[in-house]
Specification:
The structure holds two protein chains of two kinds. By secondary structure, chain A is an alpha/beta fold. Chain A contains nine helices and ten strands. Chain A has two domains: 121 residues, Rossmann fold (3-Layer(aba) Sandwich); 65 residues. Chain A is globular, with a radius of gyration of 19 Å. The longest helix of chain B has 36 residues. Classes of the chains: A alpha/beta, B alpha/beta. Chains A and B meet through helix 2 and helix 3 of A and helix 19, helix 20 and helix 23 of B.
Chain lengths: 246, 499
């Protein structure tokens, strides 16, 4: 659905993306991985026009993205950020209802869809009456994912969706996200700095460094055929638990 | 969307309604200058016109001659008491020196203004010294003062600067005084009495002349022109309400110098109300509620005060909120807007009134305009601050949803900024309640009226009659806006965050 062609992005003198070209096909799950400052979040934001490239082109279904089309594009794309981006003055249910209501959905239809998604995300439906401040971090991220899925979008973009959660909650949510991605037949693009999470959730990894793509391919390639020394170090940069012989 | 449109429509309708009520020309409006005699005379006319069945109101103590004249010319008032000397020397500069009464009337007529027959007394400027001093130095005439340059003069501000006042007097009599000080006319008598000054200017009808045992010196060179009291009125008002002319005629020739001195003394020294004194003189009682009881007077002033504050604040909200929203969106514009509203804030209220009088006349309108301008800064600034303090990730989430800007603003940004915006409106309201008391300086009414009168009469109870309700109203407004802030702050924002 998305592709970018020779995209460059600068913030002042800092270069976030250097002549990057990528395609994201419908029905695939892609994880953008890399260290912080590698340009992976900038790339994701650019796909729905939250940032605009200094050079190159963002293409939506093989047509260049024009500024006027951003609003309609964003309605077709669900977007989840690290802290969920829930609006604190609205209940979880009203957060879910924002876009559907604007599109003219009836309240009953909104509630039905919210209930269905709550089931899929294993969120007790009564929690939807609460305000974000009354929910735990994991519950908030579940609601954020639900909000992104409300209108059954053509694509789902997630920017470090589990980055702020503690390990146990994160572990459970990874499982739920995998199930959601499995039933979601459209495009998914996920940004994370955790290669294990990326490999668990996505069929294709794109490793970025200093605004350039270092390696692009199925997860196993990163372990078996790292493109260079940086990939090798990135893949192995985690600690093994000490094993106890009994 | 609908609710926003309705909010705007209601606000605009409210302003138009109040504006048209102000502009309604049916009621005759009498003005008076800011001293007791002028107020008593205007009350006489009001009572007499009221007896004839005319709808009439009295705008008290609006200011000095220039303000009243301006107000009469532009139709903010229909009539006020004036003095022939002032008309000749201050108001009609182009009138030749030796012009007679007919030429005076003709010059006024060309400006659409009529002049009545004299009321019967001459309130001339004069200089006075204490009786004891007069005896000691053998002072009888203004010429006698020339031999005593050691005498200290304490002169009212207006007398110091008027064409028919001090500058001309020095030239006419050749004074070379060692000390001349400008002071408030009300304080001059006390200064003379205590020996702080030796010579003061006074009006021949001043109540204090008898009370303080003052000798009025004879104007032996006939420097001071005649200051016969007359009515100035708009000719179109007289055409509209012929009974007005009847009332003006009624009062002609009836008020002697002694009668006027007596009435001034009754107000200034015996602390009686101007209306009562004027009514006693005419042998009629006031039937209009204006002076009825302390409570209804308080109620009336409260309404006037609330109107000043309410309209100005409402307009500032209607204009300031969009400016604030725009300013938060376009940073360069925002800085310019904030700077210009801040500059407005630095203009002293009195100066602001003076700027606005030529544009809006006198009365409630310029006062409301001034209060409106003062309200803009807190409202614009808090709107900008409120919107700018929304965390960037939240704004990005809002943008990513694909909602149009309008919806995003109404459903997300404004509710998140509501608390700060309401606090700004509250600040503006409290400042307005205080500043509105100054509106009385230009005839806008409200709590400032008793405060100004109290200052004029040296009456602390009168000052408190305005100051205490103003303070209470400010507290009430503060509490009200704290309540609104609580209601308008979404529940989700009042909850402590949970991890």
């Amino acid at each position: 659905m998305f592709s970018i062609e020779h995209v460059t992005k600068r913030y002042g003198t800092a270069v976030a993306l250097k002549d990057v070209s990528l395609r994201f096909e419908v029905g695939t799950v892609t994880a953008l991985i890399g260290t912080s400052g590698s340009g992976k979040s900038t790339l994701l934001r650019m796909l729905i026009g939250l940032d605009w490239p200094n050079g190159g082109q963002v293409m939506i279904e093989n047509k260049p993205l024009l500024p006027d089309e951003r609003l309609l594009l964003r309605r077709r794309v669900g977007y989840v950020t690290q802290d969920g981006g829930l609006f604190p003055h609205l209940t979880a249910r009203d957060n879910l209802a924002l876009l559907p209501r604007h599109l003219g959905w009836r309240p009953a239809a909104i509630d039905a869809r919210a209930g269905e998604l709550a089931g899929r995300m294993q969120l007790p439906p009564e929690l939807l009456r609460r305000y974000p401040a009354e929910l735990s971090g994991g519950q908030r991220q579940r609601v954020a994912v639900m909000r992104a899925l409300m209108t059954d979008p053509d694509a789902l973009l997630l920017d470090e969706p589990l980055g702020a959660l503690d390990p146990v909650v994160r572990f459970d949510l990874q499982e739920q996200l995998r199930q959601v991605f499995a039933t979601f037949s459209n495009t998914v693009i996920l940004v994370t700095h955790d290669i294990a999470e990326a490999a668990f959730l996505a069929g294709r990894l794109v490793l970025m460094r200093n605004g350039e793509v270092v390696q692009d391919g199925p997860p196993e390639d990163f372990f078996t055929r790292p493109a260079n020394e940086f990939v090798r170090r990135f893949v192995s940069a985690h600690r093994e638990l000490p094993t106890h012989q009994t | 969307m609908k609710s926003l449109t309705r909010f705007w429509a209601l606000g605009i309708a409210g302003i138009l309604l109040c504006g048209s009520a102000l502009a309604a020309g049916e009621t005759l409006r009498i003005g008076s200058k800011n001293f007791t005699e002028s107020i008593i005379l205007a009350e006489m006319l009001r009572l007499d016109a009221q007896r004839q069945g005319l709808p009439v109101e009295h705008r008290r103590a609006m200011g000095g001659s220039a303000i009243l004249w301006q107000a009469l010319l532009e139709g903010s008032i229909d009539a006020y008491p004036e003095y022939t000397g002032t008309i000749r020397r201050e108001l009609l500069h182009d009138l030749p020196g030796g012009a007679g009464a007919d030429e005076l009337a003709e010059a006024l007529r060309q400006r659409g203004i009529g002049i009545s027959a004299p009321l019967g007394f001459d309130d001339s400027y004069a200089l006075g010294v204490s009786e004891a001093q007069a005896v000691r130095l053998d002072l009888h005439t203004l010429s006698d003062l020339r031999a005593h340059p050691e005498l200290r003069f304490g002169l009212s501000n207006e007398f110091m600067s008027r064409g028919d006042g001090w500058p001309g007097l020095i030239a006419a009599y050749g004074y070379t005084p060692a000390s001349v000080r400008a002071m408030d006319h009300g304080l001059a008598y006390r200064a003379l009495d205590s020996g702080a000054v030796d010579v003061i200017d006074l009006y021949t009808t001043d109540a204090e002349i008898r009370n303080y045992r003052i000798r009025v010196l004879d104007d032996d060179r006939h420097y001071f022109p005649s200051y016969q009291a007359v009515w100035l009125y708009r000719l179109d008002a007289a055409r509209r309400a012929p009974l007005l002319e009847a009332s003006l005629h009624d009062l002609a020739g009836r008020v002697s110098l002694q009668a006027m001195q007596g009435m001034n003394a009754a107000v200034m020294l015996d602390q009686r109300a101007e209306t009562e004194v004027a009514g006693d003189f005419l042998g009629i009682r006031d039937t209009g509620g204006q002076e009825a009881g302390a409570w209804s007077r308080l109620w009336q002033r409260t309404l006037e005060h609330l109107r000043l504050v309410g309209i100005s604040l409402g307009a500032a909200l209607l204009i300031g909120l969009p400016i604030g929203i725009l300013a938060a969106r376009v940073r360069r514009l925002g800085q310019a807007m904030l700077a210009s509203t801040a500059v407005l804030q630095t203009i002293p209220s009195l100066a602001m009134f003076v700027f606005l009088i030529p544009l809006l006349g006198i009365g409630a309108r310029p006062a409301i305009a001034a209060l409106f301008l003062y309200s803009l800064l807190p409202i614009v600034r808090n709107t900008v601050t409120g919107l700018a303090s929304i965390p960037a990730p939240l704004l990005e989430s809002a943008a990513a949803l694909g909602l149009p800007y309008r919806v995003q603003l109404l459903r997300i940004e404004l509710p998140l900024a509501a608390r700060t915006i309401v606090a700004g409106v509250g600040t503006a309201a409290v400042i307005n309640v205080g500043t509105a008391t100054l509106g009385a300086l230009i005839g806008a009414g409200g709590y400032g009226e008793p405060i100004l009168t109290g200052i004029r009469l040296g009456s602390v109870p009168l000052i408190l009659e305005g100051a205490i309700p103003a303070a209470l109203l400010a507290l009430l407004v503060l509490a009200l806006f704290e309540g609104i802030e609580r209601v308008l702050t979404p529940r989700g924002l009042r909850l402590p965050a949970r991890q």
